[in-house]
Amino acid sequence: MTKLVTFSTGGGTGGGTRPGVLRDDRVLDLAAAGLPTGADGDLLEIVRGGDGLMSEVVKAADAWAGPTHALADVTLHAPIKQPSKIIGIGLNYIDHCREAGLDVPAEPVVFSKYPTCINGPYDDVTWHADWCQDIDYEVELGVIIGKAAFRVAEADALDYVFGYTVVNDVSARDLQFRGPKQWDLGKCPDTFCPYGPAIACRDEIADPQTLDLRLSVNGDQKQVSNTKNMVFGVANLIAYLTRGITLLPGDLIATGTPFGTGIGLKPPVYMKDGDECIAEVDGIGLIRNRMRALG
Q1: With respect to CATH, is domain 86-294 assigned 3.90.850.10?
Q2: To 5 degrees, how large is the angle CA 160–CA 163–CA 168?
Q3: How many Å apart are CA 211 and CA 21, to the nearest integer?
């Protein structure tokens, strides 16, 4: 399986990152193999390069040509640090609609997450208690767009996908639903979009509507479902969004979360300082984030 990562060596926290191929417990350094890194040293230039550049990536992976690193010796970062946009989809699993006490939507519920909330797959999620307190988790299948898409037919939509990733759509429910109901404020605090650990390339996922996904907090299973339970599948979402919005290479779509969120419990139970949250999608991997409340 071709999985692409953005990584650094020497315990780096973001500087000196570069693209790589993840295979088992080793990472192939694509920059050292002569492939472009772009200004941010992440996977965006690989995505923008289209099928021609991906063929070079596949050749390098098949030959395993270039320096490699043990996975244990590198730090994995968010695969793309600054996509032009992150689009979230709300209420996209029937059981999640029911736990929220809301009707199943007739059309996708769309919101934004700002690129400044992007976080690494193993980095801390942080918030300031004087800003928000009711911090919730949401495991989601992430979709990375591979080429500019506008007015795309549903039958052709998956051709515009570069690959798939794991997203935890962290949400501050007190900001999202109380007072003026500021969805974007509740979804966009810094660090509230950890994702990764890799991008599984499109050809490696035969059907994005057959993937198991799950999330645990401190080892306690909270969410278990399958993407077949989406109200609107990946192809439908891309067709719907591109009726009036141009999706660009590297854009991230967080496709919605299933039953089991903290807000759905009676009474609600939210994450607290020190909690460990693990979100996983089969065939892609898992992300693990420590929750940290700041003063």
Answers
A1: yes
A2: 120
A3: 22
